[in-house]
Amino acid sequence: MRIYISADMEGVTGLVDRDDVQPDGRDYERGRRMMAEDVNAAVRGAVAAGAVDVLVNDAHGPMRNLLPEALHPAARLVRGKPKQMGMLEGLAPEHDAVICVGYHSRAGALGVLSHSFMGHEIEDIWLDGRPVGEIGLAQATAAALGVPVVALTGDDTACTEATEWDASITAVAVKYAHGRFAAELRPEDDARRAIEDAVTAALTPAPARPPVREEPAVLEVRWQSASVPATLLGIPGVTAPDSRTVRAEGELPLLYRQFGVWMRVAASLTNQPPYC
């Protein structure tokens, strides 16, 4: 069994503030150690279920948060950026399942460090007319490759978002949001045991493949700045329903990859901090 882990940081055990998750933050070094421990718990759970290959993609911010020497020896690591597929770099149809570790809720949700990919710059995203964030886009893109997302860890808001998007996902809440920068924290050992046990259970027996999607997907993104859509209109196939929204239609995962290009364009045009 081949397992793919996408590791974000905002939903990691014990982390609640930008100082915990940004390289210039005063508690970032502690945060990256906490991230490694959550990922390692997921790796242990996968190995216990019979995984013979585990690929971890560092999917947060600079994408070099996980120290290779801190990672479980059964896992390989994809580290650094830019990556053509961003948070899903390295995911392939040959994988049997995806596990999302440390994920957070979408922009506008009252969850810990909630946002959608780019802090304030992205206000809303819709996939096929349905509000979506990083969780839903990851699940839909993985499903288009024929790989199910079987487990997700994060705060309780992220877990609710995941199971509302796909009821088959096993979600593990490692903290309970009291606001965007505050949470009730689950004890570390308890949280890691829960992650490990949930991953093992989600992979036993081996998960079924999702149905093949036949129709193209429709992705819409509403930006804070009107300059972003005005520039993105230079990309063939991109339309603008209004001055701050862009729309494109196509097959996943190619549409997910194009969305990554949109974000790189937006980053070149704006200078918004991630959370505040």
UniProtKB/TrEMBL annotation:
Positions that bind Zn(2+) 1: D8, E10
UniProt xrefs under CDD domains: DAP_dppA_1
Residues noted as binding Zn(2+) 2 in the record, renumbered to the chain: D8, H60, H104, E134
Active site: H115
MF-aspect GO terms: metal ion binding
InterPro entries the record matches: DppA_N, Peptidase_M55, Peptidase_M55_sf
Annotated keywords: Metal-binding, Zinc
Residues in the signal sequence: none
Protein name per Swiss-Prot or TrEMBL: Peptidase M55
Lineage: Bacteria, Bacillati, Actinomycetota, Actinomycetes, Kitasatosporales
